[in-house]
Structure of Globin family profile domain-containing protein:
Amino acid sequence: MGKSNSKNTVVAELSIEEIAAIRDSWTRAKNYNIGKKILFSLIEKRPKFAEYFGIPSDAVTFDGMQNSRELQLQAHRIQGFLDTAVGALGYCPISSVYDMAHRIGQIHFYRGVNFGADNWLVFKRVTVEQVAEAAATSRNGTEDSEGNGLKTLNDNEESSLFGSVAPIIGARRDPVTEICWNRLMTLIIREMKRGFLEEAMRNCKE
Ligand code: HEM
């Protein structure tokens, strides 16, 4: 696993302060169904992704998303991966996180999930946004008691298909959280892309 050349490349690692900020925000965000929020928000931005899970892109509804077992499972995978990655930061070499991300990239190649660079970028943006928002929401305690991100929106709040992406008054995202998560996700996505592309090229040659 992970014959990624990242191990031989000098990369800017995360500082202790950045790791602390990532851990702190994640501890708060993960209690708010963050995997689901990330995936739902991703599909809201790229309805075509829903087709991978058997939902026609023109039939994406909140109920349809809630009831899709495949989506729940995928949300669980995303959250589980991020939990492991964040848990490893500061305790294991960063190369172990790269290896996991690299492997995920390879898996998506074999599952036929054909991500272009643009789609990985959306995934990165959405993850940063959603973690920062959930962490801020958790701090302010404005989420519904079950952490579904499904609180009823009032007229002052921007209406969006899934509610979870609406700005929550009094729960402004912390820019430091966003910067640190952006750094982490840049590293993770880079390895996912590399894993995917290396596998694609290897298959091309064979
Ligand atoms: C950290 C992020 C992610 C992780 C850890 C992850 C993990 C996985 C794993 C382990 C599988 C293989 C499941 C199996 O073969 O049983 C998989 C499949 C898949 N993933 Fe992801 N994934 C991530 C991001 C995404 C994103 C952003 C999408 C975009 C929609 C996506 C779409 C899919 C699809 C469509 C499959 C195939 C499902 C199937 O064949 O049933 N994944 N993912």
Notes: The helical segments are 16-29, 34-45, 49-52, 62-67, 69-88, 94-110, 117-140, 175-205.
